[in-house]
């Protein structure tokens, strides 16, 4: 069944807002004691007092149960606005609630729909972060998810003059995101391993470890050792999110996971100097080598997650051509991509760009899509849909999200942020993005024209 038919025939027949992620999927940050149902809604706090008697309270929070109630009633939880924006582009628009639901058996979707919203539900897919240790400080990340970002704020102080950053991503070290020192006992980590040993290892289809950079966490290697020391006890597929930086021990990862069902998720959306500017700390050549080293190994697949922001669109088509080359060499199932549109911080959204640049990027992406969508054995249906919805998004959607500030304020913050980012990181926006173009405006000249 294709994605659109699945939406109309399976999801919408339950309710116009039903999404299985509210029941079966979670991201849990054990360092901060927070969770969400997927990477779109804002995180919310886990009730620590409930964990001693119910470790599954890491997932079955009062907030999620109320969102389940709304979905069963056909109402839209506000935190899921990303999907509603996509679906409101037209009745045939496919949002992530389709992809987040389609990975489960239809029988499981029926069971979720019949389950009272007040009941606890066992997870089927879980993304978990043990801590925020990370050697990168990507431009659209922040101290809540990167220890290197924490060091930046501690060394240079807060970013100033940002009027649209309502979540205060760049103003403090986000101490609440790491409640316990790495040497201290963390009750959220303890609850996870208790839940894992009890029954979670029996219900999960996939366990994905994220961070920070998870390969810098001792808990990640502890979990890998559990799989090695308990062969046949769990059928859970292990997945690891890694930035695959130069100092990530990919050789140890390959050796430690031999005999395991493991897949790798990594992030990239641009090439060369553009990628290294966006992802501060990245050695792009080392990333390329690590990706191909993994594809030459026993690893099942490498999934490339592109975060679509204002700076990546110039070289995104070239990067996608590289992914196509990998598909041609290793097979389309061994490597694939998703295009995830950035909304926060809103001043880094692609929608802040001038119309001339947006039209150019839409043209380049359309050319890529038209070139490859009909070639057998290259693009998956979800990749074609992600490209189509990005092109439509750049054309139709006017604001990153409902609470976004007006465009002059977003432009102010764009200039304010990257001016300070250059000073702190030893970079140059204008030198990096001053690309040749037949248009009168480049990303660098538009940036230069912004008045603070």
Structure, briefly:
With 452 residues, this protein is α/β, with parallel strands linked by helices. The protein has helices spanning 3-11, 21-24, 62-72, 81-87, 96-102, 106-114, 147-156, 187-203, 218-229, 250-256, 272-278, 284-295, 316-330, 355-372, 381-396, 407-425, 429-432, 443-449; strands spanning 25-29, 34-36, 44-45, 125-129, 206-210, 237-241, 262-267, 302-308, 335-341. The longest helix has 19 residues, at 407-425.
Structural features:
452 residues, alpha/beta, TIM Barrel, 2 domains, nine-stranded mixed sheet, 42% helix, globular
Write the SSE topology:
Blueprint: H1 3-11, H2 21-24, E1 25-29, E2 34-36, E3 44-45, H3 62-72, H4 81-87, H5 96-102, H6 106-114, E4 125-129, H7 147-156, H8 187-203, E5 206-210, H9 218-229, E6 237-241, H10 250-256, E7 262-267, H11 272-278, H12 284-295, E8 302-308, H13 316-330, E9 335-341, H14 355-372, H15 381-396, H16 407-425, H17 429-432, H18 443-449
Parallel strand pairs: 1-4, 4-5, 5-6, 6-7, 7-8, 8-9
Antiparallel strand pairs: 1-2, 2-3
Helix pairs in contact: 1-5, 14-15
């Amino acid at each position: 069944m294709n994605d659109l038919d699945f939406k109309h025939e399976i999801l919408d027949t339950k309710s116009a807002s039903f999404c299985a992620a509210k029941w079966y999927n979670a991201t849990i940050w054990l360092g901060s004691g927070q969770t969400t149902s997927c990477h779109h809604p804002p995180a919310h706090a886990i009730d620590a007092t409930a964990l001693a008697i119910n470790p599954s309270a890491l997932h079955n929070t009062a907030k999620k149960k109320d969102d389940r109630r709304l979905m069963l009633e056909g109402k839209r939880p506000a935190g899921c606005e990303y999907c509603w924006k996509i679906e409101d582009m037209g009745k045939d628009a496919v949002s992530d609630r389709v992809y987040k639901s389609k990975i489960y058996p239809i029988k499981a979707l029926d069971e979720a729909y019949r389950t009272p919203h007040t009941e606890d539900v066992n997870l089927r897919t879980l993304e978990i972060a043990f801590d925020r240790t990370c050697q990168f400080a990507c431009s659209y990340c922040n101290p809540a998810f990167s220890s290197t970002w924490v060091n930046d704020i501690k060394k240079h102080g807060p970013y100033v003059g940002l009027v649209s950053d309502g979540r205060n991503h760049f103003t403090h070290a986000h101490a609440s995101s790491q409640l316990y020192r790495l040497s201290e006992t963390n009750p959220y980590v303890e609850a996870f391993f208790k839940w894992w040993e009890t029954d979670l290892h029996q219900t999960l289809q996939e366990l994905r470890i994220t961070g920070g950079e998870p390969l810098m966490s001792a808990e990640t290697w502890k979990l890998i050792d559990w799989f090695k020391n308990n062969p046949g006890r769990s059928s859970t597929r292990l997945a690891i999110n890694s930035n695959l930086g130069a100092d990530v021990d990919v050789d140890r990862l390959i050796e430690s996971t031999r005999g395991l069902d493991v897949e790798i998720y990594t992030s990239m959306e641009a090439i060369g100097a553009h990628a290294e500017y966006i992802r501060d700390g990245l050695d792009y050549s080392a990333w390329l080598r690590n990706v191909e080293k993994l594809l030459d190994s026993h690893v099942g697949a490498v999934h490339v997650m592109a975060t679509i922001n204002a700076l990546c669109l110039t070289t995104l088509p070239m990067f996608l051509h590289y992914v196509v080359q990998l598909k041609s060499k290793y097979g389309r199932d061994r490597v694939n991509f998703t295009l995830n549109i950035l909304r926060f911080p809103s001043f880094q959204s692609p929608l802040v760009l001038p119309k001339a640049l947006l039209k150019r990027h839409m043209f380049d992406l359309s050319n890529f899509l038209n070139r490859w969508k009909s070639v057998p054995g290259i693009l998956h249906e979800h990749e074609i849909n992600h490209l189509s919805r990005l092109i439509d998004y750049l054309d139709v959607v006017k604001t990153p999200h409902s609470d976004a500030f007006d465009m002059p304020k977003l432009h102010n913050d764009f200039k304010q942020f990257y001016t300070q980012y250059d000073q702190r990181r030893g970079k140059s926006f204008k030198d990096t993005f001053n690309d040749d173009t037949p248009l009168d405006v480049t990303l660098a000249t538009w940036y230069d024209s912004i008045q603070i």
